[in-house]
Amino acid sequence: MSGLAESQRRQTGPVRGRPRSEAVERSIVEAVIKLLEDGVPLAELSIERIARTAGVGKATIYRRWNGKEELFVDVVRTAEPPDAELPGTSMRDDLVALLEQLRQRGLMARSSALLHSVFAQMKSSPKLWDAYHTIVIAPRRRKQVAILRRGQANGELRTDIDVELVNDLFIGPMLFRTIMQPNAALPEGLSEQIVDTVLEGLRPVSS
After folding, report:
1. Which of 5, 136, 9, 123 is nearest to 70 (CA)?
2. Which residues lie closer than 8 Å to 163 by C-beta, 6 or more apart?
3. pLDDT tens digits for range 70-81
4. Contact call for residues 98 and 147 (beta carbons, < 8 A)
5. CA pair distance 137, 130, nearest whole angstrom
């Protein structure tokens, strides 16, 4: 079984649906994974084909997802490491936890040929990539910005700077290494190094 399938089994599955339907949802997600492992491109994965592979009716899928884009996003989301549990002890510690999750995602994408292929195909489909951005990326960014605003309120971060820009300063280096430089090192301690380096110039200066 691929790393994607194994990771999916460790997760709780798609967020849609009631607990009693988790087994059905899991079978649908696993049907998508099986088809992808068989080499079927995302563009050729119809709801009808997925339903047939999962042994369910199309209506069963549409009751849980509005379309195949949302279903594909859930397949990727359940394969990724779960969102980080934030320590809540300081802005610095929360930022490290978020970057460490991003580093782990990068390592997983590198080790899973299937996951790497899925991301590549998602980026070539504007509709699918927009769905992933809306469902996954945008909420994560809002969480990141909220942490920075809290840091400003607590005196951990200068108040005269744009938190949206600051967020890019923290996230950018990790994204660059995981996406633009797929062979770049992602060693342990990198998350702490990035956060501490950026914070060095962004902490309030006492009078």
Report:
1. 136
2. 145, 148, 149, 152, 157
3. 999 999 887 787
4. yes
5. 10
CA–CA dist 129, 111 (Å, integer): 22
Please identify which residue in the block is written with the tokens 């691929």.
2
Residue listed under structure tokens 């990539």: 129
Does the pTM exceed 0.70?
yes
**DSSP-assigned states of every residue in 39-57:** T--GGG--HHHHHHHHTS-
Shortest CA distance to 104 belongs to which of 84, 86, 81, 77? Answer: 81
Residue 3: pLDDT above 50?
no
